[in-house]
Amino acid sequence: MKKIGVFVCWCGSNIAATVDVKAVVEACKKEPNVVFAEDYQYICSEIGQNKMADAIRDYKLDGVVICSCSPRMHEATFRKTAEKAGLNPYMIEVANIREQCSWIHKDIEEGTEKAIVLARTAIAKVLLNAPLQAGESKVTKRALVIGGGIAGIQSALDIADAGFEVDIVEKKPSIGGKMSQLDKTFPTLDCSACILTPKMVDVSAHEKINIFAYSEVEAVSGFVGNFTAKIRQKARYVDTAKCTGCRACMEKCPSKKSLNEFNAGLDTRPAIYIPFAQAVPNKATIDPNACIKLKTGKCGICSKVCTAGAIDYEQKDQIIEREYGAIVVATGYNIINLDKFNELGYSDCKDVITSLEFERLTNAAGPTKGHLICPSDGREPKKIVFVQCVGSRGLRPCDKQYCSKICCMYTAKHAMLLREKHPETEVYVFYIDVRTPGKNYDEFYRRAVEQYGVHYIKGQVGKVIEKDGHLEVQASDLLADEQLHIDADLVVLAAAIEADDTARKIGTMLTASMDTNDFFTEAHAKLKPVESPTAGIFLSGMCQGPKDIPDTVAQAGAAAVKVIGLLSKDTLKCNACVASPNENMCNGCSLCATVCPYGAITYVDKEFRIPGGVQVRRVSQVNEAICQGCGACTVACMSGAMDLKGFTNKEIMAEVESICK
Amino acid sequence: MQNLKLREKIEEMSGVSVLKCMRCGKCSATCPNYDEMEFHPHQFVYFVEKGEIDKLANSKSIYTCLSCMACVERCPRQVEPAKIIEAVKLLQIRKQGNNHLKPEQVSVSLDPELPAQALTSAFRKYSK
Questions:
Q1: ipTM of this complex > 0.90?
Q2: Label partner for A637 (CA 20 to 30 A): which of A121, A375, B83, B85?
């Protein structure tokens, strides 16, 4: 006869206030096979765990049921305790009488009744539990970082500094991301390039870091510790080994009309280009959509002026396959398309610009060398209107429901810098709320108001139209309860941010879950904020949700620590609760392999002895290292051949029966 | 909170939930007839939220709203202020003898500069 022990936890008053724990203990004692039942204030405490270990030894228990909080909280704790006391950790069952019982019931009688049912159910299951052994898999000691912005850079540097190899895959010709486009950074107003470019140089000089710029991840297979990624290195039409970054080709290129992405489209660049002065790698790239030679076969000027002989019009995309133990997603963000906000005139008026364009217009390395002008006619703006929450916090299809988080601070920065550089200007900021939580953040915003005299107006802008070379801004001032008409020179829109458009593709590739906004979801909103629910995938920066540079760098470091923790192991314990097919029942239909989201199931031809000979049948086989124990195959299997260890059909039916008793 | 029952009534009639409003002021920023209105679109939403509906019902604003629906179109929270104004208006004119616009008045008060939309809106409230 199997001997079962039951522990009922009070969880202080969390459980004991709504569940009569003594009554649960008494009810459990009456269940068959239960040789020991006890209640205690906190079973997760050291004393509680010792009580459990003692009971396992003293009563020679074959299984233990703990009636406590959710197994997501302490199952691992109790399993460890059981293992130390010599019991297989999978002979533990947790009956959740807190989240599923005491917290949702007010009536103690009802609560107790339900707790008893839950306890009985767990007893029924643990009686059928079998001891399980987790397998092991090797860890490839190299990390992949997808995205080369500040998030990816920081994660890569931290991982590499711990001694592990890192590959950064960046889709643009240079790493640096959005931060390289910014002028100053809040709240200290240090120059963005001055703090970013040293990090970019560190990345390129680090012997453990490989940069795959102008490249994209095309496919990922495998599982935690053993990923394989296919990386497409797009053709630059320039041999990077030869290119010296001298820029002679850029000067001579006759096709100079492509919009300069780095300057937010405010000026143009040649077809062969290096995006900015501090680009890493400092190598030229030919834009095949603009290059005359690639389009028509005539021209070839760049190859004539290149003294290094680096130009190669025949270059093709290359596919590189590499193995990794962990993957950091750092795909970043973009600002939304403003076409749907035509009342603000972004598409019609040249002098209505986005904040990112404003950054470039005030940046010393920008198209105007930092001289702020109206893009329409080059005059210096005297009256500037900033509009916050453009596309943020709305419910319409064109809106984002979330707060973009960074706009309040960068608008305060823009307004402040404007007033400092040009004290003669009048600056208005229209806001719904000013949200500036963060160290020295509110002080920063107050400085814009109090010290720099920026007019902050509670209200929104309803209409912007161009009239006689000026912008007529119609807005509301809710506190004064009036409609304002401002004759402005420049309107700057704080456009909402959104996840980069490559995020969804990468999320699908990695089977990493995402929310409806295409931001990656964390494994736990509070306790696992940098881990994806998919093992081995970590999140860094804006790809997980709006955040500023300090938060991004902090998160990037945190993700790196998790990666280092993973890569420092030689082997990983696999999940013991994996699928296992009964070969005698398997009919070889392949349905399980089709539904498996991890590619853990393959089919093999196997010989079976039958009366009078040998029969070859096609049967399902599970790679236990890859299986995550999701159970999709067990549900799909029509012949009932597939079972999930630790959650077998028998065990689940026993639970159901016990509830219905 | 003055008259929450009336607020519920307005919400039911307009199909609008005033609590969705985040007080951004986009409606009043958009309103083309702002200067003619005693109470402005954002105030309609706010006063309905507070249940102070009599104030709105007795105001000329319910007739000066052009029903151009610009505020409905632009409201990022889909609060739709014009529908609230319309509901307050209906509440008022459904009371017998409270017709604001008599048909015989139309010809004399017809102003050539009056937007056609205002006339349509005015007739809508007269029709019952």
A1: no
A2: A121
